[in-house]
Amino acid sequence: MCDDVSKEETNNSSDNLDAEKRPVFGNRFLTNEDDVFSHNAWSFAKQPTDLEYTRHRKKPAGGGRELTDKSMFNEFNAWDNVEWDEEQEQQALQAVEKNSSIKMSDEDKAKFKGDADKFWDSFYGVHQNRFFKDRHWLFTEFAELAPNKDIQESRSIFELGCGVGNTILPILKYSTEPNLKVYGCDFSAKAIDIFRNHPEFDAKRCEIFVMDATLENWQVPFEPDSQDIIVLIFVLSAIEPSKMKYVAENCYKYLKPGGLLLFRDYGRYDLAQLRFKSGKCLEDNLYVRGDGTMVYFFTQEEVRNLFTGVGFEEEQNVIDRRLQVNRGRMLKMYRVWIQTKYRKPKV
Predict the structure, then answer these.
(1) What is the mean pLDDT of residues 282-308?
(2) 20 exposed, middle or buried (CB, 10 Å; 0-12, 13-18, 19+)?
(3) Average pLDDT estimate for 92-96
(4) Are 205 and 182 within 8 A, CB to CB?
């Protein structure tokens, strides 16, 4: 089929160069990224020399591959620290206003909030350990969890929402600390069962258990003021906002004075939020996925107020904006995460 647009492009003399007239390496340069789909091929004026062309690059904390020339976006699968302009922010805001304009009924709210553990059990029942993902960024972003042969004293780490071991298993695998003890909990009994049967699970160094972290009083196998580090990675977003304070208060209770809380989760206007269709919103910025699990999208200020409000001191609060690229389909996917570190004051 040939429409007016394709005719106009075919008749454009600048795009109709014969092969013998085309200079070596081509002469069609992409100067405006909005034109990227108007042709099958583009040339680059030069090959960048300051970017590491390897999927095994050693990425610094916070990322190190920044997109300074927008015409090069398709060179890699991911770019770090991507800045949004006012127009993009406005488009994201409009998308959220649209998909949250219709809220779920009170009956549905009660179902999804009250049966959250059942929906996660169902999720893990379907995916089993296929949901395990190698968090290759874990030790880069949170060096406190990285292997450290110099640590000889006893140390204890507790992860909430450990799932099937995405965070704990790498710690157990690479740590050489002789006196390290790792705890993990999840409110999905199915996830704990899958985790416990993983071949790399080490019951001598790790104890995992089922617990609903939204309860006001936790039932845990350790004493208050006993944990060196508590980890919250993509778990608080699965909890309804009205109960998040219980999580923050208990984290403070069980951390040692001077202990550290590590947090990473979905940020406001992340691709996952913008993709929701109307009718999937429980309340502002809280949605229900197709499998019935909930997800909340945070701002930096919300996270700050939550943890400093119960006594923590803020050491880090950053917004991590990444551009992920599907180079085969020429798709841009903007991801937004919040990463923070909070410390319990020393007595």
Answers:
(1) 96
(2) exposed
(3) 91
(4) yes
